[in-house]
Specification:
Layout (H helix, E strand, L loop, with lengths): L6 H9 L31 H17 L5 H4 L2 H17 L3 E4 L2 E3 L9 E3 L1 E5 L6 H11 L6 E5 L10 H14 L4 E3 L7 H6 L2 H9 L3 H14 L3 E4 L3 E4 L9 E3 L9 E3 L13 H6 L15 H7 L1 E2 L5 E3 L7 E3 L1 H10 L4 E4 L4 H4 L12 E7 L2 E6 L19 E6 L8 E5 L33
Parallel strand pairs: 1-7, 4-5, 5-6, 8-14, 11-13, 14-16
Antiparallel strand pairs: 2-3, 4-17, 7-8, 9-10, 12-13, 15-16, 17-18
Helix pairs in contact: 2-6, 4-6, 4-9, 8-9
Length: 446
C-alpha cells in the first residue's frame, strides 16, 4: 500500500552521513480502511464501498497533505466514477421530476405503495465535514428518503473535490434516491476564481488538468431544477425569464423567427417550464446575453421584496423577482413551494429588506399560493475569511414529508469543529465574497 512507511529504512537514513533531508513518514491509515480506494467489478457500488469512501476521505483530510490525495483515490478510479455519473446526469432532463410515491418494499404491509420523505440541501461549498454531519443527521439516502441537492458543491471551502465525488458516488449507487442540481459555482469561471481549479491541481499534480476537465464536463450535465411531488419547485437561483420565439417584423408572415430577449425590465416576463425544458444547459458558463438566457437565470437570480422582474444588476447576470412573480409561478403550475439557495450570509447582509442567513434559511415570500424559501447548508461560512469577525451562521436542510410535501421542516446545525487545518486555494483577502461585480468579459460562452 502506498501509504505504508518502513521504520527501519527511516532509521538507516537518519544514521547516514548523506545530507539528503529525511521526510517524515506519512501516517498509516487504520486497518479498517481499504486504501487506496478501488473501482468495484462492473462498477456495481455498494453501501460498504460508499462507507469506505466516506471514511477514507475523512481520514485523509485530517492526516495527509492534499498532494497525497491520489494515493487515496487513484485517478483511474476517479475517471470511472465521473464517467458513470456523467452518463446518468446527462440523460436527465433540465427539470427532473422527483416522485416520492414508490412501491412498498415491505411485503407485510397492506399498502401497495408508500411515500418517501424528501430532504432538500442548499449550498455546501466544499465543507465536506459539514456534509458528513448533515447526511448522518438527516439519515442516508434510502428507499424512503430522497435527497435533492441545490448546487454549489465546490469553491471557497477546501474539500470541494471530496464533496462532489461523494455525492456522485451516491448518485451512481442510488440514482433514483439522490438528485444533483447545478449551482452557479459549477462553472469554469467561478471555479477558476474561487479555488476549485487550484484545489484539483494541488491534489492531482500533473494529472490535475485532466481531472479538472473531467469535473467541468460533469458540471455541464447537472440538471437545472426539480419538481417534487407535483407541488415543489427547487433550483439553485430560482425563477427565469421568457425567451419565447416571436415572429420578426422584417419577416412578418414568413417562417423566420427571432428571439425576444429584451433586457428592458418593462418587457421582461416569467418563463415557462416548457421553455426551461428546452434550454441548452451544456455550457461551461451560462450566458448573460443572447438567446440562451434561461440557464443563467436559473443559476444566478435572486428574490426581491419589490414587485416585478428586473435585471440583477448587482450580480451582472440573472434576474430579481418580486412576490407577485412568485405568486404567478406557483399559481400557474399549481405549486405550493419554491426552495432555492445561492445566498449565504455574506450576500444577504447586503440585501435590503430580506432577512439574514444566520439560521441557514429564510422565508422570503409568503403569497396566496404558497411560499418562497432560501436554503443555505454551509455553516460558519466562508471557511476562509479576511476579517477576524465571522458570520458564525448555521447551516440548514429541510425535510418535505408526505402526503402533501408543502410544509418544509427546517433542521439547523452548526459547523463541525475543529476543522482540519489546510491552506486556502484562492486569495480570499482579494476575491469578493458575494459573487458581485463579476468579470463578465472573462466568462466564456459556447
Amino acid at each position: 500500500m502506498t501509504l505504508d512507511s518502513d521504520p527501519a529504512a527511516a532509521e538507516a537514513a537518519a544514521d547516514s552521513t548523506s545530507t539528503t533531508p529525511v521526510k517524515n513518514p506519512l501516517p498509516t491509515p487504520p486497518q479498517e480502511l481499504r486504501v487506496p480506494i478501488w473501482w468495484p467489478e462492473e462498477g456495481n457500488l455498494s453501501m460498504d464501498w460508499i462507507q469506505n469512501l466516506i471514511s477514507c476521505f475523512d481520514w485523509s483530510s485530517r492526516n495527509l497533505p492534499p498532494t497525497e490525495f491520489p494515493s487515496v483515490l487513484p485517478v483511474q478510479v476517479l475517471d470511472s466514477l465521473i464517467l458513470v455519473a456523467s452518463k446518468m446526469l446527462h440523460k436527465e432532463p433540465n427539470c427532473v421530476t422527483v416522485d416520492p410515491f414508490r412501491p412498498n418494499l415491505d411485503s407485510s404491509s397492506s399498502s401497495s405503495s408508500a411515500a418517501a420523505s424528501v430532504v432538500v440541501v442548499g449550498d455546501l461549498h466544499g465543507q465536506f465535514h459539514d456534509l458528513l454531519f448533515l447526511l448522518r443527521d438527516a439519515g442516508f439516502p434510502s428507499h424512503d428518503r430522497i435527497f435533492i441537492f441545490n448546487g454549489d458543491y465546490v469553491d471557497r471551502g477546501a474539500w470541494g473535490l471530496e464533496t462532489f465525488l461523494l455525492l456522485l458516488a451516491w448518485k451512481v449507487f442510488m440514482p433514483h434516491n439522490i438528485y444533483l442540481l447545478r449551482g452557479n459555482h459549477e462553472s469554469k469561471y467561478c471555479t477558476s476564481v474561487y479555488g476549485f481549479e487550484k484545489e484539483v491541481m494541488v491534489k492531482y499534480g500533473d494529472k490535475g488538468k485532466h481531472v479538472y476537465r473531467k469535473c467541468l464536463g460533469c458540471f455541464e450535465g447537472l440538471p437545472l431544477a426539480s419538481i417534487v411531488a407535483g407541488c415543489v419547485y427547487t433550483a439553485h437561483g430560482g425563477l427565469f425569464r421568457c425567451v419565447t420565439m416571436t415572429p420578426s417584423k422584417r419577416f412578418k408572415g414568413k417562417k423566420n423567427r427571432k428571439i425576444n430577449v429584451n433586457h428592458d425590465s418593462k418587457i421582461l416576463s416569467l418563463g415557462s417550464l416548457e421553455e426551461l425544458s428546452k434550454a441548452r444547459r451544456s455550457v461551461l458558463d451560462p450566458p448573460w446575453e443572447g438567446a440562451n438566457l434561461i440557464p443563467g437565470d436559473v443559476l444566478w437570480s435572486d428574490p426581491s421584496k419589490n414587485p416585478g422582474l428586473a435585471p440583477n444588476k448587482e450580480r451582472g447576470i440573472g434576474l430579481l423577482w418580486g412576490p407577485d412573480c412568485t405568486e404567478e409561478f406557483l399559481k400557474k403550475y399549481q405549486l405550493k413551494l419554491i426552495i432555492r439557495s445561492h445566498e449565504g450570509p455574506d450576500a444577504r447582509e447586503k440585501r435590503e429588506g430580506l432577512d439574514g442567513m444566520a439560521e441557514g434559511y429564510t422565508i422570503d415570500h409568503i403569497v396566496d399560493s404558497g411560499k418562497l424559501v432560501t436554503l443555505f447548508s454551509a455553516p460558519d461560512y466562508p471557511q476562509f475569511q479576511a476579517t477576524e469577525q465571522r458570520y458564525n451562521n448555521k447551516g440548514a436542510y429541510t425535510v418535505l414529508e408526505p402526503p402533501n410535501f408543502d410544509n418544509p421542516i427546517f433542521h439547523t446545525f452548526s459547523a463541525v469543529t475543529p476543522r482540519p487545518k489546510v491552506h486556502p486555494y484562492y486569495d480570499y483577502e482579494e476575491v469578493i465574497d458575494s459573487d458581485e461585480e463579476l468579470d463578465l468579459a472573462s466568462m466564456v460562452t459556447s
